[in-house]
Specification:
By secondary structure, this protein is α+β, with helices and mostly antiparallel strands. The protein is built from 4 helices and 19 strands. It has helices spanning 10-27, 30-33, 42-58, 203-206, and strands at residues 64-66, 69-71, 81-86, 109-115, 119-120, 127-128, 137-140, 146-150, 153-159, 163-167, 178-179, 183-188, 213-219, 223-224, 230-231, 240-243, 249-253, 256-262, 266-269. The radius of gyration is 29 Å and the shape is elongated.
């Protein structure tokens, strides 16, 4: 008398097999899971499975962190938001005195890590594309954006409207910067001030005064209208202009003083004497 032959429940076997097959289909890319078998080459299967494996490794638990918390994968800016890796803050004053941490000026310059596709115009639905792309460097306003800690690095989430200038290369120079969209780069004129009696006011007294006129040295591509087209600047390079008080953002390039001003803040063009 031998051991009893086990009875196989074929219905249960089929149910388990189909459940297993369905689970495997969920793990495969759609190009494999829903294509006719005759049209799938061995090379394509191997390539897609390699991509699937790489994605699984990249988005594994613990690969990314946001503000100290682990997240499943990289963050993706939406709309017109731009993720910027901030550069180091200023560590010394103009006189060479080292500044304590609480006195350092917040960094407003950095490298674009990721950028959203751009925002939709609220009235026409036209997509207004983002003016910068990953790898470029940007300069933005002092109080713009939201500070975050991403993968243990200090970063800033800003809007593309906050970008004053963008450039490529390790450092910002007059030659490589480009005003963003409707911004102008103006070289401000800081003439010596005199009192009514003819006494020249010391530079230390006037250093915090706002100078609201100067020569346009660079012009952005223009202000984007509701149709997605650019409206050109009302002033050109070389013209001497006056702009609204406190409307500009001060920029130092090559030891010279400049100001980033929006086109709508230009009040007038001032004629100058030809040399």
């Amino acid at each position: 008398t031998g051991a009893p032959t086990p009875v196989i429940d074929h219905t249960e076997y089929a149910r388990i097999t189909m459940k297993l097959a369905a689970s495997l289909l969920l793990l495969l890319p759609s190009s494999i899971a829903f294509s006719p078998p005759a049209l799938i080459s061995r090379e394509k299967v191997c390539r897609d499975l390699h991509v699937l494996g790489s994605a699984t490794e990249t988005t594994g638990t613990g690969s990314y962190t946001l503000d100290g918390e682990k997240i499943r994968g990289p963050i993706t800016p939406v709309g017109n938001f731009v993720l910027v890796r901030t550069k180091e803050t200023v560590t010394a004053s103009a006189g060479g005195i080292l500044l304590p941490d609480q006195s350092k000026r917040r960094a407003t310059e950095g490298e674009v890590v990721a950028a959203g596709p751009g925002r939709l115009h609220p009235h026409t639905g036209v997509r207004i594309s983002c003016p910068v792309e990953p790898g470029q460097n940007v300069l933005y306003g002092l109080f713009d954006g939201t500070q975050i800690k991403y993968n243990d690095e200090d970063m800033q989430m800003i809007r593309d409207d906050d970008i004053l200038l963008y450039y490529s290369g390790p450092m910002m120079t007059l030659e490589n910067v480009t005003p963003c969209r409707d911004y102008l780069l103006v070289k401000v004129e800081k003439d010596k001030l005199e009192t009514d009696s003819g006494i020249v006011v010391a530079a230390s007294v006037t250093k915090d005064l706002e100078f609201c006129q100067g020569t346009v040295v660079k012009v952005g591509e223009g202000r984007m209208c509701s149709t997605g087209e650019f409206t050109p600047s009302p002033v050109g390079v070389g013209e001497f202009v006056k702009f609204r008080d406190y409307a500009g953002n001060d920029v130092k390039l090559g030891g010279e003083d400049f100001c980033c001003v929006r086109m709508v803040d230009i009040l007038s063009v001032i004629p100058v004497e030809e040399e």
